[in-house]
Known about the structure:
heterodimer; A: alpha/beta; Rossmann fold; 2 domains; three-stranded parallel beta sheet; 15 strands; B: 293 residues; mainly alpha; two-stranded antiparallel ribbon; 4 strands; 4% strand; globular
Amino acid sequence: MKKFLAMVLALAMVLAIGSAAFADDAFKLGGTGPLTGGAAIYGNAAKNGAEIAAEEINALGGIQIELKYEDDTHDAEKAINAYNTLKDWGMQISLGSVTSKPCEATSAETFEDRIFALTPSASSVAVVEGKDNMFQMCFTDPNQGSLSAQYIVDKGLASKVAVIWKNDDVYSKGIYETFMAKAAELGLEVVSDTTFNDGNATDFSVQIADAQSNSAELVFLPMYYDAASLILTQAAKIGYAPKYFGVDGMDGILSLEGFDTALAEGVILLTPFNADSADEKTASFVAKYQEKFGEIPNQFAADGYDCVYAYYQALTNANATPDMDAAALCDLMIQQFTSMTFNGLTGNNVTWDTAGAVSKSPKGMVIQNGAYVGLD
Amino acid sequence: MAFLSFLISGISLGSIYAIIALGYTMVYGIAKMLNFAHGDVIMVGAYICFYATSRFQLPPLVGILLAVVVCTILGIVIERLAYKPLRAAPVLAVLITAIGMSYFLQNAALLLWSSNPKVFPPVVPTGKISLFGGQLTISYVTVVAILCCIVIMLALTWFTSKTKMGKAMRACSEDKGASQLMGINVNGTISLTFAIGSGLAAIAGVLLCSAYPTLVPTTGAMPGIKAFTAAVFGGIGSIPGAFVGGILLGIIEIFAKAYISTQLSDPIVFAVLIIVLLVRPAGLLGKQIREKV
């Protein structure tokens, strides 16, 4: 019996060394995101997208990437714990966190620890502000707000708009603030400005009545699609049918189970990714994603995928090797990301400024017959 | 006219709070414990009804009945496994267990049904009553919710004051030890209370999701807390109090949003609650009990 136990232990040790040896020739890429909890749809999408990219890259045989995601349940404190777990594991480069609040917490840590981080989707300004080694793959919130106002004016969609936003959410608030500033600058009249929060995100009758009584032609909804679906339903109930304009959080409304997509007919949104695009790279990604995870990827999945490929490009250009430590890689990556141009699923000719914010052009989409159709 | 339509919105929202609050107050009134998992039992009820009607295409009434049966059983199981072993433990321990149970149910729902939101199919006929040439509309869900509240309220009042089981419940709430000496099966009575409370939760879940149709594993959490507030507001333990508290809370919330600020509606709701509790510590319809020192 003792002999058997010794053999098992010896075998375990050999295996442990074996896997450690493997890890030595791969870059350790870690990220945190909500894999469970209310925001799990985003975390899992980003993780799944990143996994596909890592598999593709590893199959090429060149640079090897070992990807590890830890659950942060969209909670800042848990994100720090998850980050520490990743650090113990030996993370060399990071994917930050998927959602804004946790990423604000982990980005402070990566900055302190000199670990380079590229978040797929944490879009608040505070995530990158004052941190030279923190970059974003998604638009910052202010960007989305001002681009939306610009788009509404440029396309002559409406002259009187209403805004309903969520005041306990940095994402929604960030977009709202820059939308308002840009609207004032462009002479777009905001006739109704109402809010809600987590505690009262069920009844929107007051907000809708306010927009309606001030005869808003367009309602701007800087929020995630679960709340937006309630607004669409309740407005339809009282027979109010303005144009609706959403941002990237609106992406996903069509895959909402049981949702009457006729309600979303004509909803316009700005998003960098369109799963129905005829583009070859997108089509192959969508097919792989569907095969592996059984659903159509959303923008978060595409962002996760692009992050890993952006790393691949940067690591290749910099001739980085997996034996470098995190701090050395951090300097190389800062150099690469501020100078390179990246082509991915979420945009062509993507560049980053020294602050870490991305520059890419958003695509206007409109929902027609239950599908996203490109506007331009 | 705007005032009346806001009033109706307020009553609609309030009727949902009221029906959840009835379950809270029922369990508190008898078992003297705050069942914080109540909101999550509501969510389970809504999911059961969702799957029954939209996946298995069962008629809505069967869906509701199924939800009531499953929730009643769930309520009894929760009580047996989590609360019964703590019967002699301090109140705080039971409270924390209830919070733990709430998290457990939410996360179990996440595993079972995933976090993707689902849109609840209309179980109550969609439609509305139009008044004043269509300027005012009251949806059927609101009417049904208020009727349900009144029926449940009357039935519970009758049950606790007239039936033998109901009298046993009131006896347990006054003094468990003395009731046991009088030959009342205290454990059975408390289990029955949970069964009734959880059955009510299923009905509340169906109505909540019929009125506001987005269903996620955290659907019950926030309305549960609001309804708890409503129950305290009306006087926890008092059955008519839960009804009055729920309706008033809904109206105050909508009016605060409509006439003061959408940003400040929650602070205003809770400020009103604080003021009421300062003036009437037992809530609007609660019994004022003088403690002997």
